[in-house]
Amino acid sequence: EHVLTQSPDTLSLSPGERATLSCRASQIVYSNYLAWYQHKPGQAPRVLIHGASSRATGIPDRFSGSGSGTDFTLTISRLEPDDFAVYYCQQYGSAPLAFGQGTRLDNK
Amino acid sequence: EVQLVESGGVVVQRGGSLRLSCAASGFNFGDFAMHWVRQAPEKGLDWVSVISWDGGATYYADSVKGRFTISRDNSKNSLFLQMNDLRPEDTAFYYCVKGSGYNYGYPLGHWGQGTSVTVSS
To answer: What percent of chain B has pLDDT over 90?
Structure first.
Protein backbone atom coordinates (compact mmCIF):
# COMPACT_ATOMS: atom_id res chain seq x y z
CA GLU A 1 0.00 0.00 0.00
CA HIS A 2 1.26 3.45 -0.95
CA VAL A 3 1.76 6.04 1.76
CA LEU A 4 1.94 9.61 0.48
CA THR A 5 3.64 12.20 2.69
CA GLN A 6 3.13 15.86 1.88
CA SER A 7 5.31 18.70 3.05
CA PRO A 8 5.00 21.12 4.60
CA ASP A 9 1.81 20.57 6.59
CA THR A 10 1.13 24.30 6.50
CA LEU A 11 2.56 26.97 4.21
CA SER A 12 1.99 30.66 4.98
CA LEU A 13 2.54 32.95 2.01
CA SER A 14 1.22 36.20 0.58
CA PRO A 15 -0.52 36.88 -2.73
CA GLY A 16 2.02 37.23 -5.52
CA GLU A 17 4.49 34.82 -3.94
CA ARG A 18 5.45 31.40 -5.30
CA ALA A 19 4.24 28.24 -3.54
CA THR A 20 6.03 24.91 -3.72
CA LEU A 21 4.26 21.86 -2.29
CA SER A 22 5.86 18.43 -2.10
CA CYS A 23 4.50 14.89 -2.14
CA ARG A 24 6.64 11.84 -1.51
CA ALA A 25 5.39 8.30 -2.09
CA SER A 26 6.56 5.25 -0.17
CA GLN A 27 6.72 3.29 -3.45
CA ILE A 28 7.13 4.22 -7.09
CA VAL A 29 3.86 5.57 -8.47
CA TYR A 30 2.93 3.49 -11.48
CA SER A 31 3.13 5.51 -14.71
CA ASN A 32 3.36 8.67 -12.60
CA TYR A 33 -0.39 8.45 -12.03
CA LEU A 34 -0.27 11.24 -9.46
CA ALA A 35 -2.94 13.92 -9.14
CA TRP A 36 -3.19 17.14 -7.16
CA TYR A 37 -6.50 18.43 -5.79
CA GLN A 38 -7.52 21.77 -4.33
CA HIS A 39 -10.09 21.70 -1.52
CA LYS A 40 -11.84 24.75 -0.12
CA PRO A 41 -14.25 24.73 2.84
CA GLY A 42 -17.80 23.92 1.82
CA GLN A 43 -16.80 22.97 -1.70
CA ALA A 44 -15.99 19.71 -3.44
CA PRO A 45 -12.32 19.08 -4.16
CA ARG A 46 -11.29 19.80 -7.73
CA VAL A 47 -8.49 18.20 -9.68
CA LEU A 48 -5.69 20.55 -10.71
CA ILE A 49 -3.06 18.21 -12.10
CA HIS A 50 -3.13 14.59 -13.29
CA GLY A 51 -0.43 12.34 -14.61
CA ALA A 52 2.00 14.31 -12.41
CA SER A 53 2.25 17.23 -14.82
CA SER A 54 -0.87 17.61 -16.98
CA ARG A 55 -3.18 20.47 -16.06
CA ALA A 56 -6.84 19.57 -15.84
CA THR A 57 -9.33 21.35 -18.04
CA GLY A 58 -9.82 24.98 -17.06
CA ILE A 59 -6.93 25.14 -14.59
CA PRO A 60 -4.84 28.31 -14.98
CA ASP A 61 -1.23 27.95 -16.06
CA ARG A 62 0.09 29.39 -12.81
CA PHE A 63 -0.46 25.83 -11.49
CA SER A 64 2.15 23.32 -12.58
CA GLY A 65 3.11 19.82 -11.54
CA SER A 66 6.40 18.03 -11.84
CA GLY A 67 8.23 14.97 -10.63
CA SER A 68 8.31 11.26 -11.24
CA GLY A 69 8.79 7.98 -9.44
CA THR A 70 8.33 8.79 -5.78
CA ASP A 71 8.85 12.57 -5.61
CA PHE A 72 6.35 15.08 -6.93
CA THR A 73 5.86 18.83 -6.69
CA LEU A 74 2.97 21.23 -7.19
CA THR A 75 4.04 24.79 -7.92
CA ILE A 76 1.80 27.84 -7.92
CA SER A 77 3.84 30.50 -9.65
CA ARG A 78 2.12 33.63 -8.35
CA LEU A 79 -0.47 33.19 -5.64
CA GLU A 80 -3.84 34.81 -6.01
CA PRO A 81 -6.30 35.32 -3.11
CA ASP A 82 -8.47 32.48 -4.42
CA ASP A 83 -5.60 29.97 -4.15
CA PHE A 84 -5.55 29.73 -0.36
CA ALA A 85 -6.94 26.28 0.38
CA VAL A 86 -5.87 22.75 1.28
CA TYR A 87 -4.01 20.78 -1.39
CA TYR A 88 -3.86 16.99 -1.61
CA CYS A 89 -1.81 14.68 -3.75
CA GLN A 90 -3.26 11.31 -4.69
CA GLN A 91 -1.85 8.26 -6.42
CA TYR A 92 -4.16 6.31 -8.73
CA GLY A 93 -1.62 4.04 -10.38
CA SER A 94 -2.31 1.02 -8.20
CA ALA A 95 -4.94 -0.11 -5.75
CA PRO A 96 -5.53 0.70 -3.00
CA LEU A 97 -5.48 4.34 -4.02
CA ALA A 98 -4.25 6.88 -1.49
CA PHE A 99 -4.23 10.57 -0.64
CA GLY A 100 -1.50 12.49 1.12
CA GLN A 101 -2.41 14.14 4.41
CA GLY A 102 -2.76 17.56 2.76
CA THR A 103 -0.90 20.87 2.83
CA ARG A 104 -2.80 23.90 4.10
CA LEU A 105 -1.87 27.04 2.18
CA ASP A 106 -2.57 30.04 4.40
CA ASN A 107 -2.71 33.72 3.52
CA LYS A 108 -0.01 35.31 5.66
CA GLU B 1 -24.68 18.53 -15.61
CA VAL B 2 -23.17 15.78 -13.48
CA GLN B 3 -25.02 15.27 -10.21
CA LEU B 4 -24.18 12.85 -7.43
CA VAL B 5 -26.53 12.70 -4.44
CA GLU B 6 -25.58 10.60 -1.44
CA SER B 7 -28.00 9.33 1.18
CA GLY B 8 -28.15 6.91 4.07
CA GLY B 9 -25.87 8.56 6.58
CA VAL B 10 -27.06 8.36 10.20
CA VAL B 11 -25.83 7.90 13.74
CA VAL B 12 -25.15 4.21 14.45
CA GLN B 13 -23.64 2.30 17.33
CA ARG B 14 -20.29 0.59 17.28
CA GLY B 15 -20.60 -2.78 15.56
CA GLY B 16 -23.64 -1.71 13.61
CA SER B 17 -24.30 -1.69 9.88
CA LEU B 18 -25.28 0.94 7.37
CA ARG B 19 -25.87 1.16 3.62
CA LEU B 20 -25.00 4.33 1.79
CA SER B 21 -26.48 5.11 -1.62
CA CYS B 22 -25.51 7.51 -4.37
CA ALA B 23 -27.89 8.53 -7.14
CA ALA B 24 -26.09 9.64 -10.28
CA SER B 25 -27.33 11.70 -13.21
CA GLY B 26 -26.06 13.83 -16.05
CA PHE B 27 -23.61 11.32 -17.51
CA ASN B 28 -23.41 7.72 -18.78
CA PHE B 29 -23.10 6.12 -15.36
CA GLY B 30 -22.27 2.67 -16.72
CA ASP B 31 -19.16 3.97 -18.50
CA PHE B 32 -17.26 5.13 -15.43
CA ALA B 33 -15.61 3.76 -12.32
CA MET B 34 -17.06 5.12 -9.10
CA HIS B 35 -15.36 5.77 -5.76
CA TRP B 36 -16.21 6.42 -2.14
CA VAL B 37 -13.97 8.89 -0.33
CA ARG B 38 -14.43 9.99 3.28
CA GLN B 39 -13.31 12.88 5.44
CA ALA B 40 -13.35 12.63 9.22
CA PRO B 41 -13.90 15.82 11.23
CA GLU B 42 -10.85 18.08 11.02
CA LYS B 43 -8.97 15.43 9.01
CA GLY B 44 -7.89 15.02 5.41
CA LEU B 45 -9.37 13.09 2.51
CA ASP B 46 -9.32 9.32 2.90
CA TRP B 47 -9.92 7.08 -0.11
CA VAL B 48 -12.25 4.17 0.77
CA SER B 49 -13.16 2.08 -2.25
CA VAL B 50 -13.58 1.92 -6.03
CA ILE B 51 -15.71 -0.17 -8.38
CA SER B 52 -15.08 -0.53 -12.09
CA TRP B 53 -17.57 0.47 -14.75
CA ASP B 54 -19.19 -2.95 -14.89
CA GLY B 55 -18.80 -3.91 -11.25
CA GLY B 56 -16.29 -6.58 -12.20
CA ALA B 57 -13.45 -5.17 -10.13
CA THR B 58 -13.56 -3.71 -6.64
CA TYR B 59 -10.80 -2.46 -4.36
CA TYR B 60 -10.71 -1.25 -0.78
CA ALA B 61 -8.52 0.65 1.63
CA ASP B 62 -6.90 -1.70 4.14
CA SER B 63 -8.79 0.05 6.94
CA VAL B 64 -12.17 -1.09 5.60
CA LYS B 65 -11.35 -4.32 3.76
CA GLY B 66 -13.55 -7.17 4.95
CA ARG B 67 -16.07 -4.79 6.54
CA PHE B 68 -17.25 -2.60 3.63
CA THR B 69 -18.65 -3.72 0.28
CA ILE B 70 -19.03 -1.45 -2.74
CA SER B 71 -21.58 -2.27 -5.43
CA ARG B 72 -23.48 -0.62 -8.25
CA ASP B 73 -26.67 -0.98 -10.25
CA ASN B 74 -26.08 0.47 -13.69
CA SER B 75 -29.74 0.02 -14.63
CA LYS B 76 -30.64 2.46 -11.84
CA ASN B 77 -27.59 4.75 -12.06
CA SER B 78 -26.84 3.96 -8.44
CA LEU B 79 -23.77 3.30 -6.30
CA PHE B 80 -23.82 1.68 -2.88
CA LEU B 81 -21.55 1.15 0.10
CA GLN B 82 -22.50 -1.56 2.60
CA MET B 83 -20.73 -0.83 5.86
CA ASN B 84 -20.59 -3.55 8.52
CA ASP B 85 -18.89 -3.80 11.92
CA LEU B 86 -18.68 -0.03 12.12
CA ARG B 87 -16.10 1.56 14.40
CA PRO B 88 -15.84 5.08 15.87
CA GLU B 89 -12.94 5.75 13.49
CA ASP B 90 -15.37 5.30 10.57
CA THR B 91 -17.10 8.53 11.62
CA ALA B 92 -16.83 10.87 8.63
CA PHE B 93 -18.52 12.54 5.73
CA TYR B 94 -18.73 10.00 2.90
CA TYR B 95 -18.50 11.29 -0.66
CA CYS B 96 -19.56 9.56 -3.85
CA VAL B 97 -17.03 10.42 -6.54
CA LYS B 98 -17.11 9.83 -10.28
CA GLY B 99 -13.90 8.54 -11.81
CA SER B 100 -12.60 9.89 -15.08
CA GLY B 101 -12.38 6.51 -16.74
CA TYR B 102 -13.64 2.95 -16.67
CA ASN B 103 -11.39 1.66 -13.88
CA TYR B 104 -9.31 3.09 -11.02
CA GLY B 105 -6.42 4.26 -13.21
CA TYR B 106 -7.85 7.70 -13.81
CA PRO B 107 -8.06 10.80 -11.59
CA LEU B 108 -11.19 11.59 -9.64
CA GLY B 109 -13.76 13.84 -11.26
CA HIS B 110 -17.05 15.10 -9.90
CA TRP B 111 -17.90 14.80 -6.21
CA GLY B 112 -21.21 14.65 -4.42
CA GLN B 113 -22.00 16.82 -1.40
CA GLY B 114 -21.51 13.95 1.04
CA THR B 115 -23.51 12.17 3.72
CA SER B 116 -22.59 12.11 7.39
CA VAL B 117 -21.91 8.88 9.24
CA THR B 118 -21.40 8.96 13.00
CA VAL B 119 -20.45 5.83 14.91
CA SER B 120 -21.01 6.13 18.62
CA SER B 121 -19.07 4.09 21.12
So the answer is: 99
From the list B28, B90, B92, B33, the residue with the least C-alpha distance to B58 is: B33
Q: Nearest-CA distance from A33 to chain B in Å? A: 7
Q: What angle do CA A55, A57, A61 make, to 5 degrees?
A: 45
For chain A, the residues whose C-beta falls within 8 A of a C-beta of chain B are 1, 31, 33, 35, 37, 39, 44-45, 47, 50, 56, 86, 88, 90, 92-93, 95-102
Give the full edge-to-edge strand order of the sheet including B68-73.
B3-7, B18-25, B78-83, B68-73
Q: What is the pLDDT of residues B84-96, one digit of tens each?
A: 999 999 999 999 9
Asked whether the beta carbons of residue B61 and residue A99 sit closer than 8 angstroms, the reply is no
Backbone phi, then psi, for A82, in 5-degree steps?
A: -75, -10
- B31-51 mean pLDDT: 97
% of chain B residues with pLDDT over 70:
100
Partner A, chain B 63-92, Cβ-Cβ below 8 Å = none
pLDDT at A1 over 90: no
